[in-house]
Write a structure and sequence with these properties.
Helices cover about 0% and strands about 65% of the residues. It is mostly beta strands and about 200 residues long. It has a single domain, classed as Porin (Beta Barrel). A nine-stranded mixed barrel has the order 1-2-3-4-5-6-7-8-11. Keywords: Signal. InterPro entries: Beta-barrel_OMP, OMP/PagP_B-barrel.
Length: about 200
């Protein structure tokens, strides 16, 4: 399947519901045990080369819970759609559903500025409608990030993938799996977000 290059920035929209034990100590934001956060990624990309046009749309909600002051665990879902055409003729029509779990470890989560490391595992199911091919896959990734509360209600967040592995296999007899391993900083894979602390 053709891979698209994303030139549009990916927006991460988030909402945080905090359940702090002592509100007087939470004047500059931050996270603590018992906090729940909801976030999500919404992205759109477009590529045009002559008469060949490609579009991709992604939405991926995420929910997490702080089981301690430094550790959060959660679940995530995802949907991605790829469409392409060449002068009115379809060249790509596929979608992917994903579900997974993640864990985060925070350094200084109760302060205005925090660092975190996220480890996630996903199951994916892809349907290539144009070629009538379905495939299933598993991926795992490690992504460090930073979170900064600009007030007691709003924070900005950034993360980037640095280590990832994925395997995918088509759903027909004799199909071979496709395995990918990536390591290194990729500046095109940086996600920025806004967090609202209720």
């Amino acid at each position: 399947m053709k891979k698209l290059l994303f030139t549009a920035a990916i927006a991460v929209l988030g909402f945080t519901s905090a359940n702090a034990q002592d509100d007087t100590n939470n004047t500059t934001g931050g996270f603590a045990q018992g906090d729940i956060f909801l976030s999500g990624t919404v992205g759109f990309g477009n590529e045009t080369t002559g008469d060949v046009k490609s579009n991709v749309f992604t939405i991926a909600p995420k929910a997490g819970y702080f089981i301690s002051d430094n550790i959060a665990v959660g679940v995530k879902l995802g949907y991605t759609s790829w469409k392409g055409d060449n002068d009115g003729t379809d060249t790509m029509d596929a979608n992917e559903f994903a579900g997974g779990a993640f864990g985060r470890y925070y350094i200084s989560p109760a302060s205005q500025f925090s660092l975190f490391a996220e480890l996630g595992v996903d199951y994916t199911s892809t349907d290539d409608k144009l070629n009538d091919i379905k495939s299933d896959g598993i991926s795992a990734g490690f992504a460090p990030g930073i979170s900064y509360f600009v007030s007691d209600k709003f924070a900005i967040e950034a993360s980037f993938g640095i280590l990832g592995y994925s395997t995918e296999k088509a759903d027909f007899d004799g199909a071979e799996s496709t395995d990918n391993f990536n390591f290194g900083l990729n500046f095109s894979n940086i996600n920025f977000g806004i967090v609202y602390n209720l």
